[in-house]
Amino acid sequence: MVNGVQQRLTAISEPNRFRIVELLRDGPQSVGGIVDALGLGQPQVSRHLRLLAEAGVVEVSKRAQQRIYRLHPESIRELSDWVQGFAALWSARMDRLGSFLEDDRAPDETNQQGG
Predict the structure, then answer these.
(1) C-alpha distances out from residue 106 to 93, 97, 102, Å
(2) Gap between the Cα atoms of 112 and 107, Å rounded
(3) How far apart are CA 96 and CA 87, in angstroms?
(4) Residue 4's pLDDT is what?
(5) Which of 98, 91, 14, 101 is nearest to 51 (CA)?
(6) pTM of the complete model
(7) Between the CA atoms of 16, 22, 28 and 33, what dihedral angle is there, to the nearest 10 degrees?
(8) How wide is the angle at C-alpha 91 spanned by C-alphas 88 and 92, nearest 5°?
(9) Whether 48 contacts 14, CB under 8 Å
(10) What is the pLDDT of residue 107?
(11) CA pair distance 15, 63, nearest whole angstrom
């Protein structure tokens, strides 16, 4: 799983590929639609789409003469799960920090009330 996540993150880390992924979040698009939406050249968009497909981020289907790209749901779910693991880690750390700060504050409040 980690190798797949790393490969997908590497693919998405390039700014134009990131923009393509964000565009596809709203739904499937043809290559021409992506070209128009992003203002990039067709060869450049095709190259980015090929790399995203090789990383498993997008999948392609043919409709007549068009190639339609969409996000690959399982790959996106895998990335989401990976990120959520870090979210849980940071949440637990923030909870511990909050407890520490509350414990640290308690004696001060006692001294202020008594003094």
Answers:
(1) 20, 14, 6
(2) 9
(3) 14
(4) 85
(5) 14
(6) 0.71
(7) -50
(8) 90
(9) yes
(10) 59
(11) 28
Mean pLDDT, contiguous 10-residue spans, the chain (115 residues): 82 95 95 96 96 95 92 88 78 69 65 56
Q: Measured between alpha carbons, how far is 92 from 96 in angstroms, rounded to an integer? A: 6
DSSP string computed for 40-97: --HHHHHHHHHHHHHTTSEEEEEETTEEEEEE-HHHHHHHHHHHHHHHHHHHHHHHHH
List, in order, residues 6 or more apart from 25 with CB less than 8 Å away: 71
Q: Is residue 30 helix, strand or coil?
A: strand
